Amino acid sequence: MKILVVDDEKLKRMTLRDDLRECNYEAIAVESPMIGLQLLQQEKFDVLVTDLRMPQMHGIDFLKKVKKEHPHITVIVMTAYASVETAVEALRFGAYNYIKKPFSSDELIIMLDKLKTLRGKTPIDSKDSSLKTSATTQEPSLYHTLIGKSQQIQEILKVLPKIASSDSNIMIFGEEGTGKSLLAKTIHLQSARQHQPYVSLNCIGLSTDAIEAELFGSQNQQGKIQLAKHGTLFIANVDIVPIDLQAKFLSVLKENKLIDTSVNEPKEVDMRIISTSRECLKEKTKHGNFLEELYYQLNVVPLFLPPLRERKGDIPMLISHFLDIFSPHQAIRMKPDAVNILTEYPWPGNVSELENIIERLVAVKSGTDITADDIPIELKLPTYQKFDSTPSLTSYHEIIKSTERELIAWAMRKTQGNKTQAAKLLSMKPSTFRDALAKHINHIDWED
Hints:
This protein is α/β, with parallel strands linked by helices. It has helices at 10-22, 33-42, 59-69, 84-92, 105-119, 129-136, 151-165, 180-189, 208-216, 224-227, 243-255, 281-286, 292-298, 315-326, 336-344, 350-364, 396-414, 419-425, 430-440, and strands at 2-6, 26-30, 47-51, 74-79, 97-100, 170-173, 198-202, 232-236, 257-260, 265-268, 272-277, 301-304, 333-334, 369-370.
């Protein structure tokens, strides 16, 4: 691979160039983005490694210009300002990954070696070239996936580059509509497999025979496992896969081989698996409904996407994001009273439901502002708490006591037993919370 290094720090720039050349990379190092842009017009480079803070042009502006003019180049950004916001901004505009200063040349070389290894693997068959083309033309971006400033989302964004650069299987847990499939695609597009196929299978509504044919193939078609060769296989709702097919899938993963039904010969399997589940698979293994060994194979790196009701502070940002998507040529904005209504709504359909609502509002809106009057009536109705587990409670005081106990247990689990934080979570005085905890401590189930 041919590497272009752009860094205004001479010592770091020359050290990187020399170390890359020693590892048999063709490397050129320049001191400014302007010179870098000239070189990119004159020569073909596979990878650009650039600093973010430079005097002539900020690294983000440089990145945007490079990706516009040379969309297929892989960009790795270097930053001494390793905040989540800076890294995420670079990823939004097409950076493949980032590396924090100070770093050793070995760290960058490991990243490049992995990228070179996966790029050099045999491409998929020519008859699947359309699938390959669609995969290779997509660029890593977080702009259409994870949006939010909440702690839960920021924690995911912080670890995302590291998770993507590994090759471990990932399990994403969360309710429907939280963005699991979009997160999976983002991980693929930031991984070293980004130029290889991304193949998806949603198990919902499929029969056992259909799932088997989709995964393993048939006489008439290749299965998803074969199509995902050297790339990523995304399986949505893997908890639906029947137990007998789980055993067959586990065998493929353990042996890294699959019988090609068209020629009845074993074929090598090389793929990364990202799967999702709406249910607690660990609990299903206890009841014999999911193979424990398969669970551990798939759940190497677990991620959890919280429901929208648990990150309401992200809703105004998401509203603005979807307005930009659905009204790119109109200055449609939402009034604060309308934003307040949407923020208070519990969103049982999560981000997907919010996206659909914004699309509907934009489609029927003729003016430039969305007001509270425009919000659908069903989103304005007061919500109520269901007491599904309290049919035997016969008095108001018993219901209140039971609900208080559940809230305290939830807060303690959420804060890992920190009483001060638990009290803050419930907007209670610490002393009041401790008194309430003392009343219920012998009746609380601490299992999450």
